[in-house]
Amino acid sequence: MEMTPRAPGHALARPEPSQADVDEFSRLSAEAASAVAVLSAVWQGRDYAGTVGSFLTVSWDPPTMLASLYAESRLAAAVAGSGRWALSVLPYGHKSVANWLASPGMPLEGLLERVPFRRGELTGAAVVDGALAHFELETADIHPAATHLLVVGTVVGMGSTAPPSEAMDPLLHWGGDYVRLAGRG
Amino acid sequence: MEMTPRAPGHALARPEPSQADVDEFSRLSAEAASAVAVLSAVWQGRDYAGTVGSFLTVSWDPPTMLASLYAESRLAAAVAGSGRWALSVLPYGHKSVANWLASPGMPLEGLLERVPFRRGELTGAAVVDGALAHFELETADIHPAATHLLVVGTVVGMGSTAPPSEAMDPLLHWGGDYVRLAGRG
To answer: Is the ipTM of this complex over 0.90?
Structure first.
């Protein structure tokens, strides 16, 4: 059911986008809501962890996931260096954990002191207590893409520790804010 | 704040996951909510389109996105063959469009007859009318990952055609169902 020949919108400046294009893309891309997870790794004896919205399930069989991490971040270095990592999908009640681990410049010392966690059996990485789902992964591939690294991981362990009261209430990110589903909590 | 030494959960069978592992992974990975979009391409003169939840923004500058497509699907073949595609992020009011385009076995003839769309200026691909945001992309890289292809695209055009009444009400997928945000609509 074609409405009119052309969609309203505009082309980006080529080959380099303008700052206005980048700003508009940032705004428009925030229209795509995402789940919120903590990604963690242990590297050279230290814990690294950060809040991520850029992850997805690639394949059910073999169980495979992907996370997109800013290539210059400490977390990307830790994941690339360790080869093992964990993802903990957060319930809405963990919004303060998401906020705490969302600051890129945070000192590593004490990073996890405010975060209830246990260590994953297979990776040693921090698994957030009360996560809707958690996954332990071994890196299968890393692909650079623009400013980021696409880290593809094979799932080696999984579980869930969310109490029933939080199990139906995922934390979401949309339009630059944390939000929740209708009819939950 | 480490609670106990080990997280509850379990290791997957190696090297091949069991069917029970695959089923549990499918259930647990559905805990990660996602936006819902229509991905489209024109290839060899025909329209291809499908509902996708596996896409994300990789980089703001240069504007870059990624979609994960089942490698054996017609849509993946069309995207790989065309090198140009579009993503339309759907509002909740477009749930019927999402359902319509979610069936993998649908005949191509008439595929878009029930879908209000216009053609993207830069790709010719169908852009769904009323999308919260739409993006036109040129493929920058394709990486095989397990059963899927990770298609990385450079954003060459973008816009939004959602009416104000739908602009705050994204369509989401969570736990196997279409859902919406609290306080919308």
So the answer is: yes
A2, A116, A181 ranked by CB distance to B117: nearest: A2
Q: Which amino acid is at A39?
A: L
Check CB contact of A37 with chain B, cutoff 8 Å: yes
Do B120 and A12 count as a contact with CB atoms less than 8 A apart? no
Tell me whether residues B156 and A12 touch, CB distance under 8 A: yes
Residue with tokens 């990952």: B145
Q: How many angstroms separate the CA atoms of B69 and B75, rounded?
A: 8
Exposed e or buried b per residue across B66-91, where buried means at least 16 C-beta atoms within 10 angstroms of its C-beta: bbbbbbeebbbbbbbebbbbbbbbbb
Which residue carries 């992020």 as its tokens? B89
- Chain A residue closest to B157 (CA)? A11
Interface contact A9-B157, CB threshold 8 A:
yes
| A68 contacts A55 by C-beta, under 8 angstroms | yes
Is A6 close to B172, i.e. CB distance below 8 A? no
Locate A11 and state its tokens. Answer: 């082309």
Tokens of B177: 């169902």
State the nearest Cα–Cα gap between B124 and chain A, in angstroms: 9
From first to last of its 185 residues, chain A has per-residue pLDDT tens of: 766 556 678 999 988 999 999 999 999 999 999 999 999 999 999 999 999 999 999 999 999 999 999 999 999 999 999 999 999 999 999 999 999 999 877 777 889 998 999 999 999 999 999 999 999 999 999 999 999 999 999 999 999 999 888 889 999 999 999 999 997 65
